[in-house]
């Protein structure tokens, strides 16, 4: 199943749960939505999604994109994010998400972030 799903767009939760229950792959498109630099600064400053993902990234010494992908991977074993990459460094960074384990506390902080 392929649906839009990201830190900022989480309305495919029912489909994600169904995919998990049925053992079907869930491929989120635009998996990094909501954490790009351009989407963080709105009229009143950084969004809450940007703040949480960026803060946790700084604590781990990795990119916010890697945190977002690690968060997606933690959602379900059915999740297979396919981020776009225009540079070899982006590919390496994205691949590192598979080895990044977020703590229960960090995941709770990211869950509490209201989308967009």
Automatic annotation (TrEMBL):
Keywords: Oxidoreductase. The lineage of its organism: Bacteria, Bacillati, Actinomycetota, Actinomycetes, Kitasatosporales. The keyword Oxidoreductase applies. This is NADP-dependent oxidoreductase domain-containing protein. Residues 2-113 form the NADP-dependent oxidoreductase domain.
């Amino acid at each position: 199943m392929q649906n839009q799903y990201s830190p900022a767009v989480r309305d495919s939760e029912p489909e994600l749960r169904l995919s998990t229950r049925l053992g079907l792959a869930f491929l989120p498109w635009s998996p990094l939505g909501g954490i790009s630099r351009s989407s963080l600064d709105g009229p009143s400053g950084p969004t809450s999604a940007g703040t949480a993902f960026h803060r946790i990234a700084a604590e781990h010494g990795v990119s916010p994109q890697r945190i977002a992908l690690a968060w997606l991977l933690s959602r379900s074993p059915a999740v297979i994010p396919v981020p776009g990459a225009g540079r070899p460094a982006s590919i390496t960074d994205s691949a590192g998400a598979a080895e990044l384990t977020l703590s229960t506390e960090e995941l709770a902080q990211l869950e509490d972030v209201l989308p967009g």
